Amino acid sequence: MSNVYAIRDNLDGLKSLNLDILDVVESAPRDADFDQLMAFERHNLSMKAWWPGFDVELYSSDDCDDDASPDIRTWVGPSLCLSPKALRLLAPSLEGLGEILPITVNGEAWGIFNCLTMVNADPSKTYRPQILHELGAAEKIGFFDDAAENRVFKSPDEPCLTLFCNDWFKEVVESNDLTGISFSTELVEFHN
Q1: pLDDT tens for each residue of 76-94
Q2: Which of 76, 104, 118, 150 lies at a C-alpha separation of 20 to 30 Å from 44?
Q3: How confident is the model over 10-61, as pLDDT tens digits?
Q4: To the nearest 10°, the Cα dihedral for 140, 141, 145, 148?
Q5: Strand partners, 108
Q6: Comparing C-alpha atoms, which of 183, 189, 159 is closest to residue 80?
Q7: Do the Cβ atoms of 90 and 82 come closer than 8 Å?
Q8: How far is CA 2 from the centre of its chain?
Q9: Partners of 74 in the β-ladder
Q10: Residue of 63, 145, 73 lying closest to 103 (CA atoms)
Q11: Cβ distance 183 to 8 under 8 Å?
């Protein structure tokens, strides 16, 4: 049985992608639903057919080295920004689990992985509090054993805030020294 991990940004002084979701919304077809675009991860929205590609830069915070470019960063919810090295190593194995949306970062071909694979949580391992007649976000989440057959996935029970992965994905990232993300067995992170 393979383990399931939550993919988290490794807040280690590395740069982040300077692409706002509103830039994406402005590039969408005119008949696209604004609310669905703003929450594309929850609506499992494919954008490949109209994605224009973006020419963007990485930005740095005060504690960031000017040359500290990550190999992988989370972008919006369960999306990953992939450097050329990460694309080369991961893109073939992510095929069928989502789509790679091309971007150019400082003149190099990068990609955003938009995960389109949804896996439901195991109700016996998941706790979602009831808030005013609706279920809130999961405070605890667990999956059926076969969830780890997916290299990466998101869950509507969480609700699509985190990208999850299996041992294979974690091993490829760590064995190739890809920087920018970490892996946690604590599958739920507090979200405001």
Answers
A1: 889 999 999 999 999 999 9
A2: 104
A3: 867 777 778 888 899 999 999 999 999 999 999 999 999 999 999 988 877 6
A4: -130
A5: 105
A6: 183
A7: yes
A8: 20
A9: 80
A10: 73
A11: yes
> Burial code of 58-87, b = ≥16 C-beta within 10 A, e = fewer?
bebeeebeeeebbbbbbbbbbbbbbbeebb
From the list 101, 91, 77, 81, the residue with the least C-alpha distance to 169 is 91
Q: Can you state the angle between helices 167-175 and 84-94, rounded to 10 degrees?
A: 160
Residue 106 in tokens:
């400082």
Contact present, 1 and 144 (Cβ < 8 Å): no
As a residue count, the chain comes to 192
Among the listed residues 155, 151, 146, 181, the one whose alpha carbon sits nearest the alpha carbon of residue 165 = 151
Residue in the block written with tokens 């998101």? 154
Residue (of 151, 176, 55) closest to 110 by Cα position: 55
Place of tokens 């080295």: 65
**Residue spans of alpha helices (H) in the chain:** 21-27, 34-38, 84-94, 167-175
